[in-house]
Amino acid sequence: MGAFVKRSSALCALILLGTTQPGSSPEGRWLTEKKNGVVEIFRCSGGDVLCGRLVWFRLKPGDSNLDLSNSDAQLRNRPLCGLVFMTGFRPAEPNNWEDGRVYNTDDGNTYHATMRLQPDGTLRLRGYFVVTLIGASEIWTRHTGPVPACPGR
C-alpha cells in the first residue's frame, strides 16, 4: 500500500521507547518506521477519539511538500506539514484503537485503519482496504526529542 503519508514515505511506523501500560494512550509524537517522518497523535473531537498529523518529514530530492496526489484538485496546494491524515480512531479494548481512517498522500486514497500499542512499547498502525487481510502495517517508535522544522518552512 506504500507509505501512509508522503512520497518520501514520511509516515510509516512509530516505536515507543518505554514499556506500554494497560490502558495507556498513543497520544504524543512518533517516529515513522523508516525514520523519515514524525507524527503527532492527539484527541481530535473530544472524548476518546484520536487523530494524527504530520509534524515533520524528510523531503527527497524531486519531491514536493504539497499534497499533489489529492483527488480534489483544490487541495493539491495544501502543505503536508501539519496535515491531519489520521482520523476517527476509537478505543476498542486495552491498547487497541479501531474505526480509524488513514489518508495516503502517495496515492490520494483514504484507507480504514487500526492502531495497537505493543507490549514492547511500539505502536503498530495497520491500514487496510475493506478487510484487515488486505493492507499493510507499520511499526512506529516514540519520538522524544525536538522536532525539526518542516521542509519548505
Provide keyphrases for this structure.
single chain; 8-stranded antiparallel barrel; Lipocalin; mainly beta; disordered N terminus; 153 residues; 9 strands; globular
Count of the domains: 1
* CATH fold field value: Lipocalin
What's the CATH architecture name?
Answer: Beta Barrel
CATH hierarchy class name? Mainly Beta
H/E order of the elements? EEEEEEEEE
Indicate the mean pLDDT: 84
Span between N and C termini?
29 Å
Relative helix content:
under 10%
Please tell me how large the radius of gyration is. Answer: 14 Å
Describe the structure.
The protein is mostly beta strands and 153 residues long. A hairpin with a 1-residue loop joins strand 8 and strand 9. The N terminus is likely disordered. The chain has an eight-stranded antiparallel beta barrel with strand order 2-3-4-5-6-7-8-9. The protein is built from no helices and nine strands. The protein has a single domain, classed as Beta Barrel (Lipocalin). It starts with 13 loop residues before the first strand and ends in an 11-residue tail after the last strand.
